Amino acid sequence: MQERLQKIIARAGIASRRHAELLITSGQVRVNGHVVRELGTKADAAKDRIEAAGRVVEAKEGRRVYIILNKPPEVVSAMADPEGRKTLRNCLRGLPERVFPVGNLEYAASGLVFLTNDGDLAADLLKHWAQVEQVYQVKVKGMLTLLDLERLGKEIGVRMQTVRQPDATRGRAANYWYEVRMRDTKKEELRRALFKEKHPLEKLKRIGLGPLTVEGIPRGRYRMIEQKEAEKLKKFEVAGNGVSVKMKKEKKSLTQRRRRGDTEDAGKREEREKREKNRSFRSEPESTKCERPAITREDFA
After folding, report:
1. Of 115-119, 162-166, 264-268, where does mean pLDDT reach its minimum?
2. What is the pTM of this model?
3. Quick one: average pLDDT of 272-286?
4. In CATH, what number is assigned to the domain containing residue 23?
5. What is the CATH number of the domain that holds 141?
6. H helices of 63-164, where?
7. Strand order in the sheet with 29-31
8. Which of 154, 166, 178, 249 is the residue whose CA sits 20 to 30 A from 111?
9. Mean pLDDT of 70-85
10. Do 39 and 157 belong together in one domain?
């Protein structure tokens, strides 16, 4: 069956679909010995010999692997780094399958990273990555009050709450941790808002990604999960998208009701103006009115 090259490469676990596109455009993919640089080129994995980054793509699908990794700080969220820094590969020693991370977690941050060799699932998640809810623990300089948390949450569009302070000494800590539930696009807004409030962000740890959690996994270690558990992440994303669609429908209906209200108000004003106009039309003008003479004593004589 003819399929796009990037889909075949991703399904084989050699690279993610996005990375496979970069391999194609950079001339690192061959089909039957010919270099392919054009995106959208199709091939048959069962009949054609496909090579990507020096590796032969096997027609037989291998085992699908789904991993939750607790990334330490100062580790690049990739399988290779041109600067020679530590990567996720250092935390996956002994794993025979070739996997790749879905999404990105910044270099200084720690916490949950989802890895897989399922190219279709990874591509679908990356397509709707902005709709997947992520849970972070953030450490800020100083302390935020409950009113600050509520105000900042409404301003940025996230949910913030206090957590038990792991490094508190006798109930006192110089810098406090908080839990934040947000979409990935809100991260920079949160950073800017905290800096503006003179409580800059010091540490960032992702503890949840949709229904997945890093709880119980030591730092630098990973846990393999079943395909059903991994597909819950996809269902969670779809559910979140459905909620947003529902909110859009409610907002649209509210706008329509407001428009109808404005139309009704305009109609009432028009009717009132017509009544006033008719009233003034029925009443005689000042020039044609017959003035009643004043009553005098002669009228009673």
Report:
1. 264-268
2. 0.65
3. 58
4. 3.10.290.10
5. 3.30.2350.10
6. 119-127, 146-156
7. 34-35, 29-31, 50-52, 55-56
8. 154
9. 92
10. no
